[in-house]
Amino acid sequence: MSATIIDGKKIAAEVLAGLSEELGALRERGAVPGLATVLVGDDPASATYVRNKHRKARELGLFSVEHVLPAATPSGALLELIDQLNADPRIDGILVQLPLPAHLDPLPVVTRIDPLKDVDGQHPVNAQMLAAGQPRLVPCTPAGCLHLLDAVGVALEGARAVVIGRSGLVGRPLAQLLLARHCTVTQCHSRTRDLAEEVGRGDVVAAAIGKPGLVRGSWLKPGAVVIDVGTSRGEDGKLVGDVEFAAAVERAAAITPVPGGVGPMTIAMLMANTVRAARLRRQP
Ligand code: NAP
């Protein structure tokens, strides 16, 4: 068997084309959705992610503003900037790029964002709505993973889904999204006793760990669908996922590549959330 490679770039382009039409209709009513990103520090990977987000926002015709703050920014200055963005009528979505430098606790920062402008779904109110089965603004990466599964027609209801990772940004919300779609979900993490055994039961396996090739292809149930969220730099400097791709391709029914799988979807979902936030704020 050789797995279908799930083309995240193509599926993301389709999402963006749909958004472009929606934006045209909004523009006729004089509304241009606005996205503000906040990057603290000079982590090169984070800087690249933010740059790509802005490029896409501008291509799509959104209003987009980038704030880059020095690594030593005190929390007060960061909170003040968020207050300004909350009050700015041109801004519909605020994304604080995570992780923050170690001296900044992310919770008070994301909690300061107006929940209706929280386009990465990190505010506790949005996280709670997702946990309660009433998603409003959902974190972009897990939303993108779900979109990929739908785009390739995976039957989720009743399927066994194994999510590896439990971060607030990816693993935890992804498990909740899959549960809402009636999967039987197993959430694995660094203390899971036998990861291979858990993975072997999954009809759907999603890895969000950040450890290159940790998930061996031989662990997979034949015919599983694999979503690889992981992005690490290999020894040659190239991006690699959490799943041992060459072996997994031989066993899985479908798999996302790294790069070109989840990454483009994260950006597309950020654009979609910004448009959604623009609509939410303009609702009477
Ligand atoms: P994170 O906050 O570091 O979380 C990693 C998770 O992996 C934790 O829950 C951790 O468990 C678990 N883990 C670590 N070692 C493990 C092991 N040996 N076995 C099982 N689980 C283990 O990372 P994140 O923010 O969720 O990101 C995960 C990966 O996705 C990273 O590579 C990141 O770069 C990538 N990412 C990609 C995109 C994209 O758009 N493509 C977006 C976001 C993130 P504990 O909770 O027990 O520590």
Structural topology:
Blueprint: E1 4-5, H1 8-28, E2 34-40, H2 44-60, E3 63-69, H3 75-87, E4 93-96, H4 106-112, H5 124-131, H6 140-151, E5 160-164, H7 171-180, E6 184-188, H8 195-200, E7 204-207, E8 225-228, E9 232-233, E10 239-240, H9 245-249, E11 254-255, H10 262-282
Parallel strand pairs: 1-11, 2-3, 2-4, 5-6, 5-7, 7-8, 8-11
Antiparallel strand pairs: 9-10
Helix pairs in contact: 1-10, 2-10, 6-7, 6-10
NADP nicotinamide-adenine-dinucleotide phosphate (NAP) binds at residues 141, 164-167, 169-171, 188-192, 195, 208-211, 214, 229-232, 262-263, 266.
Structure description:
This protein has 284 residues and is an alpha/beta fold. The protein folds into two domains: 30-116, Leucine Dehydrogenase, chain A, domain 1 (Rossmann fold), CATH 3.40.50.10860; 139-263, Rossmann fold, CATH 3.40.50.720. It is 42% helix and 15% strand. The chain has ten helices and eleven strands. The protein has helices spanning 8-28, 44-60, 75-87, 106-112, 124-131, 140-151, 171-180, 195-200, 245-249, 262-282, and strands at residues 4-5, 34-40, 63-69, 93-96, 160-164, 184-188, 204-207, 225-228, 232-233, 239-240, 254-255. The strands form three sheets. Strands 1-11-8-7-5-6 form a six-stranded parallel sheet. The N and C termini lie far apart (53 Å). The mean pLDDT is 96. NADP nicotinamide-adenine-dinucleotide phosphate binds at residues 141, 164-167, 169-171, 188-192, 195, 208-211, 214, 229-232, 262-263, 266.
